[in-house]
Amino acid sequence: MTRFEANTPAERRKLFAEAVTAHRTRGSPFLTITVESDPEVDGTDDDGDPLPEPWIQFAEKTFNLDVTDAERERLEALLDDFREFRIDEVTSPEESEGTNVRITARSDANRLAGFVDRAFVEVYGRDDDYRAWVTQI
Protein backbone atom coordinates (compact mmCIF):
# COMPACT_ATOMS: atom_id res chain seq x y z
CA MET A 1 0.00 0.00 0.00
CA THR A 2 1.07 3.56 -0.59
CA ARG A 3 -0.34 6.65 0.99
CA PHE A 4 -2.59 7.01 -2.08
CA GLU A 5 -4.23 3.57 -1.99
CA ALA A 6 -6.08 1.47 0.57
CA ASN A 7 -8.03 -1.79 0.70
CA THR A 8 -9.83 -2.00 4.05
CA PRO A 9 -12.88 0.05 5.00
CA ALA A 10 -11.05 1.96 7.76
CA GLU A 11 -7.97 2.63 5.59
CA ARG A 12 -10.11 3.72 2.63
CA ARG A 13 -12.24 6.11 4.66
CA LYS A 14 -9.13 7.63 6.21
CA LEU A 15 -7.54 7.96 2.75
CA PHE A 16 -10.68 9.54 1.28
CA ALA A 17 -11.08 11.99 4.19
CA GLU A 18 -7.42 13.01 3.90
CA ALA A 19 -7.85 13.47 0.15
CA VAL A 20 -10.90 15.71 0.66
CA THR A 21 -8.97 17.76 3.23
CA ALA A 22 -5.97 18.06 0.88
CA HIS A 23 -8.27 19.04 -1.99
CA ARG A 24 -9.87 21.77 0.11
CA THR A 25 -6.54 22.99 1.51
CA ARG A 26 -4.87 23.16 -1.89
CA GLY A 27 -7.89 24.60 -3.64
CA SER A 28 -7.39 22.06 -6.41
CA PRO A 29 -9.98 21.85 -9.19
CA PHE A 30 -11.09 18.33 -8.13
CA LEU A 31 -9.99 15.01 -6.69
CA THR A 32 -10.50 11.64 -8.35
CA ILE A 33 -10.86 8.23 -6.70
CA THR A 34 -10.79 5.01 -8.73
CA VAL A 35 -11.03 1.30 -7.96
CA GLU A 36 -9.73 -1.83 -9.64
CA SER A 37 -11.70 -3.00 -12.62
CA ASP A 38 -13.64 -6.19 -11.96
CA PRO A 39 -15.01 -7.79 -15.16
CA GLU A 40 -17.41 -9.94 -13.11
CA VAL A 41 -19.02 -6.81 -11.66
CA ASP A 42 -18.34 -4.18 -14.35
CA GLY A 43 -18.84 -6.38 -17.39
CA THR A 44 -16.86 -6.45 -20.61
CA ASP A 45 -17.06 -4.79 -23.99
CA ASP A 46 -17.87 -6.61 -27.25
CA ASP A 47 -14.24 -7.81 -27.51
CA GLY A 48 -14.28 -9.30 -24.00
CA ASP A 49 -12.08 -6.55 -22.56
CA PRO A 50 -13.02 -5.23 -19.10
CA LEU A 51 -15.02 -2.03 -19.05
CA PRO A 52 -13.34 0.95 -17.35
CA GLU A 53 -13.20 0.94 -13.58
CA PRO A 54 -15.65 3.09 -11.66
CA TRP A 55 -14.48 6.48 -10.50
CA ILE A 56 -15.83 9.27 -8.34
CA GLN A 57 -14.72 12.88 -8.56
CA PHE A 58 -15.23 15.55 -5.94
CA ALA A 59 -14.95 19.29 -6.57
CA GLU A 60 -15.74 21.93 -3.97
CA LYS A 61 -19.12 20.58 -2.77
CA THR A 62 -20.05 18.33 -5.68
CA PHE A 63 -19.59 14.64 -6.44
CA ASN A 64 -19.47 13.62 -10.09
CA LEU A 65 -19.91 9.99 -11.16
CA ASP A 66 -21.11 7.87 -14.05
CA VAL A 67 -23.69 5.15 -13.48
CA THR A 68 -25.79 2.64 -15.38
CA ASP A 69 -29.55 2.58 -14.81
CA ALA A 70 -29.23 -0.16 -12.16
CA GLU A 71 -26.38 1.71 -10.44
CA ARG A 72 -28.44 4.89 -10.46
CA GLU A 73 -31.24 3.13 -8.60
CA ARG A 74 -28.76 1.91 -6.00
CA LEU A 75 -27.25 5.42 -5.77
CA GLU A 76 -30.66 6.93 -5.09
CA ALA A 77 -31.25 4.32 -2.36
CA LEU A 78 -27.86 5.15 -0.81
CA LEU A 79 -28.72 8.85 -0.79
CA ASP A 80 -31.60 8.06 1.58
CA ASP A 81 -28.88 7.67 4.25
CA PHE A 82 -27.29 10.97 3.22
CA ARG A 83 -30.25 13.35 3.37
CA GLU A 84 -27.96 16.39 3.27
CA PHE A 85 -26.80 15.34 -0.22
CA ARG A 86 -28.95 15.92 -3.29
CA ILE A 87 -28.79 15.13 -6.98
CA ASP A 88 -28.42 18.42 -8.84
CA GLU A 89 -27.81 17.34 -12.41
CA VAL A 90 -28.30 14.21 -14.47
CA THR A 91 -26.95 13.96 -18.02
CA SER A 92 -27.50 11.00 -20.34
CA PRO A 93 -25.81 11.58 -23.71
CA GLU A 94 -27.36 9.56 -26.52
CA GLU A 95 -23.98 8.11 -27.54
CA SER A 96 -23.35 6.80 -24.02
CA GLU A 97 -24.85 3.82 -22.22
CA GLY A 98 -24.56 5.51 -18.84
CA THR A 99 -25.66 8.58 -16.97
CA ASN A 100 -23.50 11.26 -15.41
CA VAL A 101 -24.78 12.33 -12.00
CA ARG A 102 -23.73 15.42 -10.03
CA ILE A 103 -24.53 15.42 -6.33
CA THR A 104 -24.27 18.45 -4.07
CA ALA A 105 -22.69 17.26 -0.83
CA ARG A 106 -22.10 19.82 1.89
CA SER A 107 -20.50 17.97 4.76
CA ASP A 108 -17.29 17.30 6.63
CA ALA A 109 -14.47 15.21 5.17
CA ASN A 110 -15.34 12.10 7.19
CA ARG A 111 -18.98 12.07 6.07
CA LEU A 112 -17.92 12.58 2.45
CA ALA A 113 -15.40 9.74 2.80
CA GLY A 114 -18.09 7.45 4.19
CA PHE A 115 -20.32 8.22 1.22
CA VAL A 116 -17.57 7.44 -1.30
CA ASP A 117 -16.70 4.14 0.37
CA ARG A 118 -20.33 3.05 0.56
CA ALA A 119 -20.92 4.15 -3.06
CA PHE A 120 -18.18 1.84 -4.32
CA VAL A 121 -19.64 -1.07 -2.32
CA GLU A 122 -23.38 -0.45 -2.63
CA VAL A 123 -23.62 1.28 -6.02
CA TYR A 124 -20.72 -0.28 -7.93
CA GLY A 125 -20.86 -3.72 -6.25
CA ARG A 126 -17.34 -3.90 -4.84
CA ASP A 127 -16.46 -6.34 -2.05
CA ASP A 128 -15.48 -4.98 1.37
CA ASP A 129 -11.81 -5.55 0.58
CA TYR A 130 -11.74 -3.61 -2.70
CA ARG A 131 -8.67 -1.50 -3.42
CA ALA A 132 -9.08 2.20 -4.12
CA TRP A 133 -6.66 4.87 -5.28
CA VAL A 134 -6.72 8.60 -5.02
CA THR A 135 -5.39 9.33 -8.48
CA GLN A 136 -5.65 13.10 -8.55
CA ILE A 137 -5.84 15.77 -5.87
Please describe what this structure looks like.
With 137 residues, the protein is α+β, with helices and mostly antiparallel strands. The chain has one domain (5-136). Helices cover 35% and strands 27% of the residues. The chain has four helices and seven strands; from the N terminus they run E-H-E-H-E-E-H-E-E-H-E. It has helices at residues 9-26, 39-42, 69-79, 109-123, and strands at 5-6, 31-35, 55-59, 62-67, 85-91, 99-105, 132-136. It has a seven-stranded antiparallel sheet with strand order 1-7-2-3-4-6-5, covered by helices on one side. Strand 5 (85-91) and strand 6 form a beta hairpin. Helix 1 crosses helix 4 (109-123) and helix 3 (69-79) packs antiparallel against helix 4 (109-123). It is globular. The mean pLDDT is 90.
Strand line-up of the largest beta sheet: 1-7-2-3-4-6-5
Overall shape: it is: globular
Low-confidence stretches: none
Straight-line N-to-C gap: 18 Å
Helix content: 25-40%
Radius of gyration: 14 Å
Tell me the count of domains.
1
- Major sheet description: 7 strands, antiparallel
Tell me the β content.
Answer: 25-35%
**Count, helices:** 4
Number of E-state strands: 7
Question: Which structural category fits the helices and strands?
Answer: alpha+beta
Give the overall average pLDDT.
90
Taken in chain order, the helices and strands follow as EHEHEEHEEHE
